[in-house]
């Protein structure tokens, strides 16, 4: 049994109109009207990927993680209950709202709602993006990644790693713990920021073309305060991205060119290079509130000549080249 992808995310927000403009207009998702109190958005052939429901909170409502087989749900339920976690089976109403064949749900140690599901509904009509983008990189890599604020990593780490089989990709320990996890070839589908806070830090969607991100960046700059981190490139997953302030306060990373790893051979390791090779200037932070420290880290990375490999890791491509004897 295994969790194999981030399948969907739910947001609690009463700013539905703002989300329609943000997810449909800026991100380029396809808006699906679910009636007065909820909205859904598509990113590909899956019937829905992002759900926004009209409930107070302006935060993450749930994360939906896909499993390989229908039987995996009962296997995970048994393991979680053995560990003292209360597991809820889905009602038929909940299955219908999530558009999946089956799911279970439970709370992690910080009260975040986690859903494990099987067999999402595939739409019968083709995906139509909300703005003219080339599409999102999803498929076996899932919808992107989700990142939580965490009060105590020592409590959250074993929950996701040992009970849900999330694999550590890498981690940094200074100035606070930052853990990245993979469940497929995407370098990370999940991460925890040990900031001492709670709540949702950001989610990331990956576009098929760098120009999709650049054009989104232009659109975001038309709105006062929309950009939270300027365009930059991350050191661990090589993602080129900017971060937008979502209508609910947390960030949404608009990415391109993320690294694909081979989970069979990947070794978890500590990183020391800071989050970015360049860019990602934190416009939302004050100079003394961390902005300068992060800038100094990437100026140091630049002074040491750190950069991503010229060719993005691609296990399939390397395998193919080996087969061809090149
Ligand atoms: Fe991210």
What would a concise description of this structure say?
The protein has helices spanning 16-26, 70-82, 92-98, 153-163, 210-221, 291-303, 315-323; strands at 3-12, 30-33, 38-42, 50-53, 59-67, 88-89, 100-107, 113-120, 145-149, 167-172, 178-182, 190-193, 199-206, 227-234, 240-245, 251-256, 269-270, 276-279.
Number of helices: 7
- Count of DSSP E strands? 18
Tell me the radius of gyration. Answer: 19 Å
Query: Which second-level CATH architecture applies?
Result: Roll
Identify the CATH class.
Answer: Alpha Beta
The fourth-level CATH homologous superfamily is 2,3-Dihydroxybiphenyl 1,2-Dioxygenase, domain 1
How does the major sheet shape up?
10 strands, mixed
The neighbouring-strand order within the major sheet is: 17-10-11-12-9-13-16-15-14-18
Provide the structure class: alpha+beta
Number of structurally distinct domains = 1
Q: Helix amount, in percent?
A: 10-25%
Order of helix and strand elements from N to C terminus: EHEEEEHEHEEEHEEEEHEEEEEHH
Heterogens: fe (ii) ion
> Uncertain regions: pLDDT < 50 for 5+ in a row?
none
First-residue to last-residue Cα separation? 36 Å
Strand content: 25-35%
Return the CATH topology: 2,3-Dihydroxybiphenyl 1,2-Dioxygenase, domain 1
* Mean pLDDT over all positions: 94
Q: Which of globular, elongated, flat, extended, rod-shaped describes the shape?
A: globular
Give structural notes:
The longest helix is centred in the N-terminal third of the chain and has 13 residues, at 70-82. The model has no long low-confidence stretch (mean pLDDT 94). The protein has a single domain (3-303), classed as 2,3-Dihydroxybiphenyl 1,2-Dioxygenase, domain 1 (Roll), CATH 3.10.180.10. By secondary structure, it is α+β, with helices and mostly antiparallel strands. Helix content is 23%, strand content 32%. The chain has helices at 16-26, 70-82, 92-98, 153-163, 210-221, 291-303, 315-323; strands spanning 3-12, 30-33, 38-42, 50-53, 59-67, 88-89, 100-107, 113-120, 145-149, 167-172, 178-182, 190-193, 199-206, 227-234, 240-245, 251-256, 269-270, 276-279. It starts with a strand and ends with a helix. It binds fe (ii) ion (FE2). Fe (ii) ion (FE2) binds at residues 145, 147, 202, 204, 253.
């Amino acid at each position: 049994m295994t969790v194999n992808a981030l399948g969907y995310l739910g947001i609690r927000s009463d700013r539905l109109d703002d989300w329609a403009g943000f997810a449909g207009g800026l991100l380029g998702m396809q808006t699906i009207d679910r009636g007065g109190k909820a909205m859904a958005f598509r990113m590909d052939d899956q019937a829905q990927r992002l759900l926004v429901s009209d409930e107070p909170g302006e935060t993450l409502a749930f994360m939906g993680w896909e499993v390989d087989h229908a039987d995996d749900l009962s296997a995970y339920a048994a393991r979680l209950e053995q560990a003292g976690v209360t597991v809820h089976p889905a009602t038929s109403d909940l299955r219908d709202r999530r558009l999946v064949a089956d799911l279970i749900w439970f709370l992690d140690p910080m009260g975040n709602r986690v859903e494990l599901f099987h067999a999402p509904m595939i739409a019968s009509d083709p995906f139509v993006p909300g703005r003219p983008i080339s599409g999102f990189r999803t498929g076996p890599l899932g919808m992107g990644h989700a990142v939580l604020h965490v009060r105590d990593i020592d409590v959250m780490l074993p929950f996701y790693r040992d009970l849900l089989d999330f694999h550590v990709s890498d981690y940094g320990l200074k100035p606070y713990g930052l853990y990245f996890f993979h469940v497929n070839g995407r370098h990370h589908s999940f991460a925890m920021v040990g900031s001492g806070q709670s709540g949702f830090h950001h989610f990331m969607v990956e576009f098929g073309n760098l120009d999709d991100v650049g054009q989104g960046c232009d659109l975001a700059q038309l709105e006062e305060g929309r950009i939270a981190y300027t365009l930059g490139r991350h050191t661990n997953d090589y993602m080129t991205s900017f971060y937008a302030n979502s209508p609910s306060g947390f960030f949404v990373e608009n990415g391109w060119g993320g690294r694909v790893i081979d989970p069979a051979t990947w070794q978890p390791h500590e990183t020391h290079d800071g989050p970015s090779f360049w860019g990602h200037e934190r416009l939302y932070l004050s100079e003394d509130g961390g902005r300068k420290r992060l800038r100094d880290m990437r100026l140091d990375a630049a002074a040491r000549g750190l950069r991503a490999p010229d060719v993005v890791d691609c296990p399939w491509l390397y395998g193919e080249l080996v087969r061809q004897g090149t």
